Every structure is written in structure tokens, then in C-alpha cells.
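Example for tutorial group B:
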């Protein structure tokens, strides 16, 4: 037992389970890469004010959940709790919006950190794949991102997820709704912290998961009744595009999401097999975020999908991913000369694109063959002194047990032919 363990609320990804996470990341990113989204990677920590301004000072993420630190030089930094603010900051810093090809379409994958009570599906360190389309106000773009996420989940074999959809209005109509909602909340029996939150961003109160708060919100004014004509038309176009694409969704008038920067389109992917932590991902339009962090007006939309929660959703549905064995060929040398020769064969196989491994450590035949079985290899190459004297190696089919002698100088070609 090691002296040290992973910090509370975190997890290690180790084989063979780590292969599931890699497969999920690949499946989520594949539709993005085929749709013009380029990969971006940002630092694991940023200026704390980037998140305070962008994510919102009234959010639990900023007030309770950020990991913050002070550098030796006195700078205040925070481990990134989400990806959008960092990606937008990087795009602005690199002036990607000035290159003349809007929207700037980016995707990313990485770890994020929030200090919250650990439970199944909610960790202090978690993994996401995200996508952002920066610099265009177009309902087709909103629909594109939702469709690509739906495509990714279905490519994994997920079937029991639901898409929740809402509109949060814009700077023209939301202030009217905000005033109506604040008036309603003023008459409720709320604790001091929730009242403080309602004064900063009353829509965040709608996102409160506590039963005693939700019960009082039964008669709250609905945002749909306060949307301006432009926001109504925009939302109806998103809905029509999704319907035309055959992507099912549910209208959820109370869907807010936990970040302050969302405007107009907002959506969430939920899976009922995950219990209370049912959200596997979500996103929306954030037309004012660029200005909040000191940039120009750049209407944008994006989402982030949780890798760990997607894995849990797959397990809840009993979906087994088709993950190929990491090794196709396993080499078992018997004797020092065979070690040198077969290591050369393994090196040549790898260079030709064949996944190959080697019985290291000078183990005997029985132990080496057990390792070959555990590796999942289809073929095992075995050679001893007599084989080498005859200029051959033994090629064994692991499933059938059939073994044949193959000329040493043609073993790579023979292996490649059998693996086709």
C-alpha cells in the first residue's frame, strides 16, 4: 500500500477502464473534427477574475467551489472550473476573431476542478470535452452544436438521454423578466444567501435544487411570457432546425444552467439512469461574455459534455464499447539470441503499424504465455535456439491454438497478412 492516495473527490484512470474514457473522448470529438472545429488547449489555471467576471459572482462555482491560490508574486489564480471562459480568453488573446473567418470554431478536452461534496457522478476533478463557436449569431449554429452532441452520444450507443431546451432571452427582454422575478421572490420565505443571490441574478434561484425552494417557485413568472419578438423568433428557428434534423428535445421553461453568461438558447443533456446527478452535459449561447472579460462584442455558443458522466451513462444502459485489444502480436523469446532477434521483429512490426508487445524479464515459456493471453493479442511469435537455427519462428493463433512455422525473414509480412 502506498503512503499516498488520490485526494478526496478525485479518481485515477488506469487500464483497462481508462480505455473507455479515451473511447468516449474520441467519439465526442469526432463529429466536431469533421465539422470544422479545431483543437485548442488552455492552461489548467487562470486569473481568478476571468471566472469571477465570466462565470458570475453569484454562482456557486465562484462563491463556493473554485480552487484559488496566490503565487509568490502575489497574483490570484484559480484552477479552471469550466472551459468556456478560458477558451474565449485564449481566442481573444490570439486575435482569432480578426482573421476574417467567423465563427471561430474550437473544441477542447481537459480536466476541470470544483470544490464540492463528492458523490457518484460529481467529483472535485472531472473531465470534459467541449466545443465553442465564437463570433456569429445564427440559430443554425446553435442547432449544429446540439445535433453534433446528439450524434456523438448516439455513436457511442447511448439511447436513454434527453435534450432539454429553453431560451433565456437577451439584454432587451431579460431585464423586464428579471424585475418581475425579483418582485415574486421578494414575497417568498428564503434564506439570507438565496436573497443575496436573487438580488445579483434572480434567474439563479430557479436553478436551486432544494425541495423547499422549488416548492415555493411553483407560481413563479415564466421567461417565455417575457421574451421579445426577436428572441421568440430565434428560439423557434432553433426548435424547427432540430425537428427537421430528427433530433428530439423537450421544452423546459425552468432550465437556467449554473452560469451567469448564458443568453437565448440554453440546453442540457440528461440521463435518468444517473440518479440525482442526471446532467451529462449542457451549454448554450453566451453573446455578452466577450465584453464581460474585456473583449469586443462576439456572439457565441458552445457546450461541454462530461466524460466521466458519459461513462456512467453507458454503464447504466449496459452499453459495452467495442474497444480493440491494445496488443495484436506478443513475442515470446526462449534464450538470449531469441531475445535479440524477436525484439528486432517487434520493433519492425511497430514501425509498420502493428501493435506489438514483448515478454520482458527473461520469463519461462509458461509465464510468458500467460502474459500473452492477458495482453489480448491475436498472435504470439515464439522462437528458441532450434527455431533460429532452422531460420523460422513459431506463429500461434491465440484463439484456436493453431501453431505454424514461418520463415524468420518473412515473419512481418506473414503477420500483417493474418491480421487483415
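The residue assignment follows.
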Amino acid at each position: 500500500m502506498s503512503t499516498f492516495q488520490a485526494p478526496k473527490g478525485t479518481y485515477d484512470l488506469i487500464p483497462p477502464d481508462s480505455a473507455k474514457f479515451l473511447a468516449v473522448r474520441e467519439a465526442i470529438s469526432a463529429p466536431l473534427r469533421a465539422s470544422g472545429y479545431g483543437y485548442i488547449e488552455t492552461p489548467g489555471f487562470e486569473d481568478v477574475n476571468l471566472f469571477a467576471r465570466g462565470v458570475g459572482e453569484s454562482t456557486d462555482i465562484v462563491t463556493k467551489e473554485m480552487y484559488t491560490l496566490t503565487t509568490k508574486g502575489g497574483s490570484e489564480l484559480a484552477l479552471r472550473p469550466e472551459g468556456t471562459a478560458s477558451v474565449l480568453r485564449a481566442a481573444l488573446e490570439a486575435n482569432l476573431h480578426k482573421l476574417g473567418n467567423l465563427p471561430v470554431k474550437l473544441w477542447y478536452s481537459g480536466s476541470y476542478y470544483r470544490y464540492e461534496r463528492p458523490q457518484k457522478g460529481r467529483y472535485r476533478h472531472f473531465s470534459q470535452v467541449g466545443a465553442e463557436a465564437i463570433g456569429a449569431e445564427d440559430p443554425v449554429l446553435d442547432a449544429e452544436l446540439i445535433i453534433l452532441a446528439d450524434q456523438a452520444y448516439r455513436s457511442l450507443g447511448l439511447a436513454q438521454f434527453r435534450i432539454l431546451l429553453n431560451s433565456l432571452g437577451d439584454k432587451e427582454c431579460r431585464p423586464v423578466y428579471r424585475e418581475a422575478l425579483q418582485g415574486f421572490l421578494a414575497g417568498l420565505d428564503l434564506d439570507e444567501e438565496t436573497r443575496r443571490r436573487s438580488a445579483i441574478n434572480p434567474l439563479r434561484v430557479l436553478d436551486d435544487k432544494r425541495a423547499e425552494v422549488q416548492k415555493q417557485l411553483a407560481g413563479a413568472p415564466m421567461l417565455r411570457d417575457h421574451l421579445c419578438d426577436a428572441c421568440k423568433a430565434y428560439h423557434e428557428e432553433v426548435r424547427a432546425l432540430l425537428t427537421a434534423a430528427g433530433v428530439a428535445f423537450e421544452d423546459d421553461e425552468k432550465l437556467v444552467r449554473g452560469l451567469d453568461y448564458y443568453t437565448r438558447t440554453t440546453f442540457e443533456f440528461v440521463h435518468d439512469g444517473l440518479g440525482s446527478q442526471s446532467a451529462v452535459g449542457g451549454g448554450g449561447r453566451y453573446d455578452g461574455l466577450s465584453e464581460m472579460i474585456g473583449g469586443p462584442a462576439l456572439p457565441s455558443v458552445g457546450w461541454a459534455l462530461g466524460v466521466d458522466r458519459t461513462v456512467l451513462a453507458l454503464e447504466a444502459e449496459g452499453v459495452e464499447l467495442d474497444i480493440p485489444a491494445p496488443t495484436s502480436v506478443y513475442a515470446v523469446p526462449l534464450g538470449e539470441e531469441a531475445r535479440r532477434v524477436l525484439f528486432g521483429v517487434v520493433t519492425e512490426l511497430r514501425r509498420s503499424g502493428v501493435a506489438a508487445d514483448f515478454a520482458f524479464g527473461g520469463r519461462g515459456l509458461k509465464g510468458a504465455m500467460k502474459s500473452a493471453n492477458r495482453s489480448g493479442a491475436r498472435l504470439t511469435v515464439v522462437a528458441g535456439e532450434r527455431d533460429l537455427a532452422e531460420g523460422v519462428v513459431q506463429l500461434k493463433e491465440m484463439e484456436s491454438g493453431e501453431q505454424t512455422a514461418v520463415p524468420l525473414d518473412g515473419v512481418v509480412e506473414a503477420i500483417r497478412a493474418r491480421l487483415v
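Residues 139-155 form the longest helix (17 residues). Compare this with the pattern of hydrophobic and polar residues in the output above.
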